[in-house]
Amino acid sequence: MKSFSHIFLLLGLLSVSLSTMAQSRNYKHIAQSGEIKDEKGLTIGTVSKDQIIKDFNGQKIAFIDNQGNLIDAKTNKKMGRMGKDGKNYYNAEGELEFKMKDNGNTCEIFNAAGKKIGDVHSSLKASACALACFQEKHRKHS
Predict the structure, then answer these.
(1) Does 13 map to a domain?
(2) pLDDT tens digit string along 97-138?
(3) Is 3 helix (H, G, I), strand (E, B) or coil?
(4) How many Cα atoms occupy the beta-carbon half-sphere of 55 within 13 Å?
(5) 17-63 pLDDT tens trace
(6) Which residues does UniProt assign to the signal peptide (predicted)?
(7) CATH of the domain at 95
(8) CA 35 to CA 122: how far, in whole Å?
């Protein structure tokens, strides 16, 4: 009887750890230094204090203008913008793409469906829209 309960406990722990790994699959992080890291902790880009977003090769891919718009560096087209409340990011079509929730020194970032996709240091939350540059749909067009 004990061995069955141990097996169920082990299976339960395994399923919890697998679901946690699945939830963090596309989890990204913007550190206080401006480094943008992927789910493995690898630096995939940076955002400067001047709001310039670069990929891991140091190539400028986008910037945030003084009105909070995320602008593609190649095309000069608006990719989206931070909302007036500073907690929501809308894509170029005006659709909610992600929202932020303050959590101490960081702000957690959730996609429109409510799934956590990353976090940003609170000192850089105005730069959180930089994460949109590293989403799959934007990388395809680069």
Answers:
(1) no
(2) 999 999 999 999 999 999 998 999 988 888 888 888 876 544
(3) helix
(4) 12
(5) 333 333 445 678 899 999 999 888 899 999 999 999 999 999 999 99
(6) 1-22
(7) 2.40.160.200
(8) 14
Classify residue 109 as exposed, middle or buried by CB count within 10 Å of its CB (0-12, 13-18, 19+): buried
11 domain residue, yes or no: no
Helix, strand, coil percent values for the chain (each to nearest 5): 25, 35, 35
pLDDT of residue 93: 93
Q: Where are the alpha helices (DSSP H) in the chain?
A: 2-23, 136-139
61: Cα separation from own chain's centroid = 16
Q: What is the model's pLDDT at position 84?
A: 86
Q: Is the residue at 8 inside a domain?
A: no
* Residue 62 lies inside a defined structural domain of this protein: yes
pLDDT in tens, 73-84: 999 999 999 888
Range of the domain at 124: 26-139
CB 110 within 8 A of CB 117: yes
pTM score, two decimals? 0.73
C-beta atoms surrounding 91 within 10 Å = 20
Domains identified in the chain, total number: 1
CA–CA separation, 120 and 67 (whole Å): 20
